[in-house]
Amino acid sequence: METTPTASVSPQRSELRKKVIESIATTMDLYGVNHSFGQLYGIMYFEDRPMTLEEMKDYMNMSKSNMSYAVRSLTESQMIYKLDEKRDRKDQYVAETDFFRTFRNFFGAKLQREVDVMLASIREVTPELSEIVLSEETSADEREEALRDLHKMRHAEQYYVWLQRFVDRLQGGDAFFEKGE
């Protein structure tokens, strides 16, 4: 991984950047982001200018297809942004350098996906569990098990309704989630 930007950076500062870039990549890996994608974000974080796919590919020694996938993933997570203006007919990208905004964007999107998937599932199975409980043809043991499952679904739904409020506050820039002093 080449981490020295095109601007003049002393060897000492380059090594210090490499340490932080590796820490960013390791941290992002903890949250399910490919390690090399984290390295790319770290490199772009320290760049003071937009980068093209070709430049990123050269920095990372990655194939064009892997680089495209990395850029698409980081763009979808709003960790990097595609600029409207092109350079030599090539798209340009820049990193989001506000870690608070990056946190809100990344975790807000992940948590929203979890809420959407789980609430849809819970709300789909709850009426059918209720039918099992209310059916005269259901055995006592099956009714008891279905009631237990129904109770679990109601408890889970309460959690996901709470989590939705949390996500709304997170994405809305609630003061709790703003930069500390």
Give the termini separation.
35 Å
Main sheet, how many strands, which sense, barrel?
3 strands, antiparallel
Number of domains: 2
3D shape:
elongated
Estimated helix fraction? 55-70%
CATH homologous superfamily label of the largest domain? Winged helix-like DNA-binding domain superfamily/Winged helix DNA-binding domain
> What is the mean pLDDT?
90
DSSP summary, beta strand count: 3
How many individual helices? 6
Q: What are the low-pLDDT stretches, counting only 5+ consecutive residues below 50? A: none
Q: Specify the CATH class of the largest domain.
A: Mainly Alpha
The chain-level structural class is mainly alpha
Q: Which fold does the CATH topology of the largest domain refer to?
A: Arc Repressor Mutant, subunit A
Strands of the widest sheet, in order across it, are 1-3-2
Query: What order do the SSEs take from the amino end to the carboxyl end, as H and E?
Result: HHEHHEEHH
Could you tell me the radius of gyration in angstroms? 23 Å
CATH architecture of the largest domain: Orthogonal Bundle
Beta fraction of the residues? under 5%
